[in-house]
Amino acid sequence: MSGFHTIEAAYMALQTGADAQLRAEAVVYLGEQRYAPAVPTMIKLLREADPGTQYLAAKALGQIGDEAEAAVPALLEALRGDDMFLRAGVTGALIKIGYPAVPGLIAALFDDSNAVKRAACKALGKIGNPRAVPALTNALQDANAGVRRLAQEALERIESHEH
Predict the structure, then answer these.
(1) What's the CA gap between 61 and 120, in Å, rounded?
(2) Residue 103's Cα: distance from chain center in Å?
(3) Helices 84-97 and 72-79: crossing angle, nearest 10°?
(4) What is the pLDDT of residue 161?
(5) pLDDT tens-digit profile, the chain (163 residues)
(6) pLDDT value of residue 2
(7) CA angle centred on 87, ends 86 and 90, rounded to 5°
(8) Distance CA 80, CA 37 (A)
(9) H or E element: which one contains 13?
(10) pLDDT computed for residue 58 by the predictor
(11) How high is the pLDDT of residue 15?
């Protein structure tokens, strides 16, 4: 439970570089409140903070949803990191942001990292936008079996969305 009672107090704590615990509580609270004006600060945390704070920022951006569209490039950057928990949090945020994330996720299908390609397949399948079908069809030929399997699952999900 956060100690914040107002969005203003949480946002102020976020802006003033409060201690790590207070900052984490502010990030969580602002995400729960879906406070879109905090998106630029969340993007900065996603790019510069420790992995734990990055994860909380990604989760908060997901809660803010499509109003966090400006965070998509930073989230796609974070997807390339080595931390699998952060990657899972970022994938979840991209799914919740939805359609605005689709072009970047399609591009991520062509990344060098198998983990990034698998995360992109998973997210595109859950978003369910038919624009991803050609790139996912291409991913069926990927050298990585996990990418191929997740691309197939994504295509099946999109197909079931359409009917």
Answers:
(1) 17
(2) 13
(3) 150
(4) 77
(5) 457 889 999 999 888 776 888 999 999 999 999 999 999 999 999 999 988 999 999 999 999 999 999 999 999 999 998 889 999 999 999 999 999 999 999 999 999 999 999 999 999 999 999 999 999 999 999 999 999 999 999 999 999 976 5
(6) 58
(7) 85
(8) 26
(9) helix 7-15
(10) 97
(11) 82
Separation CA 95–CA 118 (nearest Å):
14
State in Å, rounded, how far the first CA of the chain is from the last one: 42
Sole residue written with tokens 């879906």: 34
Phi, psi angle pair for 6, to nearest 5°: -135, 150
Q: Any residues with CB less than 8 A from the CB of 44 and at least 6 apart, and which?
A: none
CA proximity to 60, closest of 83, 93, 86, 82:
93
Q: What is the pLDDT of residue 4?
A: 84
Considering only CA atoms, which of 59, 1, 2, 54 is closest in space to residue 26? 2
Residues 6+ apart with CB under 8 A from 23: 13, 14, 17, 45, 53
Question: 29, 2 in Cβ contact below 8 A?
Answer: yes
Backbone angles phi, psi at 43, to 5 degrees: -60, -45
Q: Residue 159 contacts by C-beta under 8 Å, 6 or more apart in sequence?
A: none
- How far CA 53 is from CA of 13, 43, 161, in Å, comes to 14, 11, 34
Total residues found in the chain within this entry: 163
